[in-house]
Specification:
The protein has a single domain, classed as Inosine-uridine Nucleoside N-ribohydrolase, Chain A, CATH 3.90.245. The protein is about 35% helix and about 20% strand. The longest helix has 18 residues. It is globular, with a radius of gyration of 18 Å.
Length: about 325
């Protein structure tokens, strides 16, 4: 069975961890490398979390390459989300230190270069954090961008933001990098807030994950913490619950089954100017700008199908 070869660029992070679980369990994806980007926490903590997740999931001998990214964005100082993800970046569950791994950790730039340069088939990049690593790669090795099938990313929004009134966190952290990526000409699938705010998991479902073994319990504990720190409960309709938002899993879920999503091919650019709109993804929703429509922007999904994907991932990895 054909597997989609991917490089997974991430900053785990609670929802990144769940996205990794989905990707690592899938018989549709072949993870060639995981590269870490500073975002939800510092680079040091993100790298540690990544290695520890792989150990917890018994993937020390998986052959996956690990790439350490830059410590900060291209221009701005690093902004982290410790108010959301805690001091470790994965507060909530107890994740054992991975002391037995034999991963050789290289730079993200070298890892991306080696994989794309030597691959006989195109590689898909999944990016669930700030786009610093991807932008650096595209800038240093533009001749290799035609070996990228697409970039499935979590970031941005057509309408609104979550760190400012206009900007989503991943794009806001490094808008210069995001602009390079969106302007690169590489096909992009954008899982922005428009769809991820609909990708909710409710309290009852969070508890039910504990029925799916040690991995399900880990996911449940991640979501219990994440639900408390991130959920904008004021969005809930009267007598209804606002669930925790599964942002990053959408970027993986699209590759597993794009039929559960609906979207629109649109032109997207990034505002990197100082001011209220810094880090905003400017989405030409009305097709008023005479520019190439460079991104497939997701707007809706079958929520229950996403939850089932995560349940299946937990079961497979136990």
């Amino acid at each position: 069975m054909y597997k989609i070869p991917i490089i997974f660029d991430c900053d785990p992070g609670h929802d990144d961890a769940i996205a990794l679980i989905m990707a690592l369990s899938s018989d549709k994806l072949d993870i060639k490398a995981i590269t870490t980007t500073a975002g939800n926490q510092t680079q040091e903590k993100i790298l540690r979390n990544t290695v520890n997740i792989l150990g917890f999931l018994n993937k020390n001998d998986s052959g996956i390459m690990i790439g350490k990214g830059l410590d900060k964005p291209l221009i701005k100082d690093l902004i982290i989300a410790d108010n959301v993800h805690g001091e470790s970046g994965l507060d909530g569950p107890v994740l054992p230190e991975n002391k037995t791994h034999n991963f050789i950790i290289n730079s993200s730039l070298n890892v991306m270069k080696n994989i794309l340069e030597n691959s006989k088939e195109k590689i898909t990049i999944v990016a669930t954090g700030p786009l610093t690593n991807v932008a650096v790669f595209l800038t240093v090795y533009p001749e290799l961008k035609n070996k990228i099938e697409k970039i499935s990313l979590m970031g941005g929004a057509c309408f609104g933001g979550n760190i400012t009134s206009n900007s989503e966190f991943n794009i806001f952290v490094d808008p210069e990098a995001a602009k390079i990526v969106f302007d690169s000409g590489v096909p992009i699938v954008m899982s922005g807030l428009d769809v991820t705010l609909k990708a909710q998991v409710y309290e009852k479902e969070i508890i039910e994950f504990k029925n799916y073994g040690r991995v399900g319990t880990f996911v449940s504990e991640l979501l219990e913490f994440f639900h408390k720190t991130t959920t904008p409960h004021f969005l809930a309709k009267e007598d209804e619950e606002e669930g925790a938002h599964l942002h990053d899993p959408c970027a993986v879920a699209y590759l597993l089954d794009e039929s559960i999503f609906t979207g629109k091919q649109l032109y997207v650019t990034v505002d990197k100017n100082d001011g209220y709109s810094n880090g905003q993804t400017v989405v030409d929703y009305g097709s008023n700008i005479d520019k190439n429509k460079n991104a497939y922007v997701l707007f809706d999904l079958k929520r229950e199908a996403l939850i089932e994907m995560i349940k299946d991932a937990c079961i497979k990895l136990n």
